[in-house]
Amino acid sequence: MKEIKIAVLSGDGIGPEIVAQAVKAVDAVAVKFGYQVTYTHALVGATAIDAVGDPYPEETHEVCMAADAVLFGAIGDPRFDNMPNAKVRPEQGLLAMRKKLGLYANLRPVNTFETLLHRSPLRYDLVEGADFLCVRELTGGLYFGRPQGRSEDGNTAYDTCVYTRTEIERICRLGFEYATKRRKKLTVVDKANVLATSRLWRETVQAMAPSYPDVEVEYMFVDNAAMKIIQQPRHFDVVVTENMFGDILTDEASVITGSLGLLPSASIGTGTSLFEPIHGSYPQAAGKNIANPIATILSAAMMFEYAFSDMEAGAAIRRAVDLSIAQNVVTEDIAPAGVTPRSTTEVGDFIAANI
After folding, report:
1. pLDDT computed for residue 69 by the predictor
2. What does the pLDDT look like over 67-122, one tens digit per residue?
């Protein structure tokens, strides 16, 4: 019996509903592959602000540090959207969690499901066979740069983009390593014709490249990359980029699959790794039992693969997800015309039963 400890941070909006389905999948894997799982639930985001006034309380951080992995739902609450001067915001909890856990790398696989290619807004012949991995730097750049703020009169605002060579080396080393395990091609996305930080990125990667002679390296400006992801998604194998570019490009890439509700992610670094869907808290659907849980369930698959090095367990989850899509046991966002959509819990139950 393999004992594992999982911190469960359901968060806001649809978070509790979709995480509950991922827990069902984990429980099914535990039975099938001989795991004994201990779950510890903790507060994060708007729910944590409501309870204790802090979007990432110290108690939550301690729970995460004591766990082998973190299964995370979503952060965000519309109450804060029109409060520009709010001293505490839910999203600050996500940034604090990444920083305090040392989660410097966000891994977002982008691949298509054969039975859902018709749902993509892109042509079938463009998206068929698309399969690439985005490696996004997660703890540097504009989101964390200092100074940051506004002038006293409120008419000027400023953010600072800061990167060190050490930060760039560690994220690009991951990019190279994943490329060696895939199709041996690494695309470095930057804006080196304008930004000094991008020029440091490019210079650093050029110095690292000789250590990975089997990997083909290409450099691409972010605006070109944004177009090419849509025009030729099969062009990419592993993409590595800085924080804000990665945030935007991976959300753009999500349309290739036809639904944000299908894409998982992993955040890894120096502390406990975290696994989450790439979509947000979708407050309009909260409590309605209609949200797509597949991205969260696939995040659980990534958890077994990356945190516990159990590819078999991850594959078992993926097979059950493939079956649910093939048999149209899916929520309304991806249900074909004429097929009655299933609820969040029905999809979760089907996948767990088929694991």
Report:
1. 98
2. 999 999 999 998 887 776 778 889 899 889 988 999 999 999 998 887 777 778 88
**What's the pLDDT at 203?**
98
Tokens 């995370």 correspond to 72
User: CB-hemisphere CA count at 13 Å for 323?
Assistant: 15
Concerning whether 159 is annotated as a catalytic residue, the answer is no
CA 154 to CA 270: how far, in whole Å?
38
> Which residue among 2, 32, 158, 223 is the active-site one?
223
Q: Of 35, 56, 77, 191, which one is the catalytic site residue?
A: 191
Establish whether 143 is a catalytic residue: yes
What pLDDT score was predicted for residue 118?
A: 74
What secondary structure, in 3-state letters, does the chain show?
CEEEEEEEEEECCCHHHHHHHHHHHHHHHHHHHCEEEEEEECCCCHHHHHHHCCCCCHHHHHHHHHCCEEEEEECCCHHHCCCCCCCCCHHHHHHHHHHHCCCCEEEEEEECCHHHHHHCCCCHHHHCCCEEEEEEECCCHHHCCCCCEECCCCCCEECCCCCCHHHHHHHHHHHHHHHHHCCCEEEEEECCCCCHHHHHHHHHHHHHHHHCCCCEEEEEEHHHHHHHHHHCHHHCCEEEECHHHHHHHHHHHHHHHCCHHHCEEEEECCCCCEEEECCCCCHHHCCCCCCCCHHHHHHHHHHHHHHCCCHHHHHHHHHHHHHHHHCCCCCCCCCCCCCCCCCHHHHHHHHHHHC
Regarding pTM above 0.90, the answer is no
pLDDT band, residue 255 (cuts 50/70/90): confident
Among 27, 50, 159, 251, the one annotated catalytic: 251
Query: Does 37 score more than 90 pLDDT?
Result: yes
Query: Residues 294, 295, 299, CA angle at the centre, nearest 5°?
Result: 115
The reported pLDDT for the residue numbered 140 is: 94
Active-site hit among 247, 282, 306, 333: 247
